[in-house]
Model the fold of this input.
Amino acid sequence: MIKNANNIYLILVGLFITSLIVSNLIFQKFFKLDLLGIPFELSVGIIFYPITFLVTDVVSEIFGKSKANKMVMTGIIASLFCLSIIYLANYLPATEWSPVDNNTFNLVFGNTSLAVGASMFAYLCAQLIDIKIYHFWKKLTQSKHLWLRNNLSTIPSQFLDTFLILCLLCAGGAIEWERFTTLFLQGFLFKIIIALIDTPIIYVVVLLLRKEFKLEIGEELN
Done:
């Protein structure tokens, strides 16, 4: 069972890190979306970023607070490594026959370092707060009402994450300040909707993992 638990934990960490890094790499493309009759203008990166909070809550519920915190720190290390790769790739001059020239590469990835830096700071604050709030509600409710701790931890941490990352991106010149209020309100509202949508998903995943590891409600793997 220990080997299987480690494998599942590594899969969840892989999903977490992939969602985090890819969201930062693709953030510069924005799109329009009508959701529940509400028009949104959003970065494509925001589609996958909420997955990180879903995975954090699953790991917190099954593997415990310590494993969740380790996963967050692993994400920071992976983001720093990603940032160093992009810096090096951007520094090296393209050949004359390169399908992607220096200007094109810089246009696509030039703001990535800013995005990754801003995201790392916002993400570290938000994820650690998410884990702390999650376990506060878990203890307070005696491990009952999974939907409550899932949403009451995700929503405030998403608020903080959205606010911080937009502040840093606007301050860094990647996004105009005039767009801050609209992007913040739409981004946060979108994340709330996704948090509510993913509630049944976390119930299914947690139920399957509890069954796999023969855990009682509130019990965590050591």
Summary: Residues 17 and 78 are 7 Å apart (CA to CA). The chain is about 75% helix and 5% strand.
